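Form 7-S
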Amino acid sequence: MATITLVTYLIDGYNLLYAIGLASRNLPAKGLERARTQLLDWLADQLADRDDRLRIVFDAQKGPAPSSEYSHRGVRVRFAFRQTADELIEELIRDELHPKRVTVVSNDGQVQESARHRECFVLTCQEFVDWLIAKPAPAARAPGESAEVSATPEEMAAWLEAFSQPMKRRKP
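Output:
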């Protein structure tokens, strides 16, 4: 039996948000909140068909209080209270038990160097977006609709043989 190794993508949220053009540096707070939600929804949609885990960190140095990590449609979200997202990402990298299973997504050179030092895989924001775009998108399905499964010719022949025969009636 093959073991599946999950990859955790540890993402610098604002780096990615600005890199893909969802926000500019002078965006008001409400606009920034909307842009974050758009980013989280897009990421959740892009990786909906994978078992990989997404963990995204946003700066919140001036936040009113620390907040717990929470899930947004399967994407784990954390705000760096009284520190930068870069500092929190470096802390998370240091504490990681399996750093080779982590891909760090950031444009910050120091964060990238910390990740490489712990043997994490490193992607710039653009490389990550390019990878997401190049990956085939899952087929859209209506809620409750099951995924279409294709059979090999051998499987199809076996199914036709098994299910094409008339059912034998039982005697009462």
